Amino acid sequence: MTAFRPKTKLRSTPPLLLRALGVTNPTVRELLELRYEFQEPFIVDSTKIATKLEVHATPLDQALAGTLAAYRANPASSARRTPEGAMEDQPARP
Questions:
Q1: Taking the complete model, does pTM exceed 0.90, yes or no?
Q2: Local structure of residue 77 (DSSP, 8 states)
Q3: Mean predicted confidence (pLDDT) in 10-37
């Protein structure tokens, strides 16, 4: 058995074509301005602000444990929704 493979290939649009499309499409124009964000990996370092404000991120294992405990304590809030947005364990509104 093989792993799932999408039938489409990932492709990129050449910057020159984006520039041409950006002349008439403001969304594409904005995409061009943000292109730099996708060319290099983000490096996030909150050391300076964390030290200044004396706050630190919650460790992942602690955050996950807290989230799971909250869902277990209140299962109604984590009930699945139908495609129409109604809760599965409640009758749908007309």
A1: no
A2: G
A3: 89
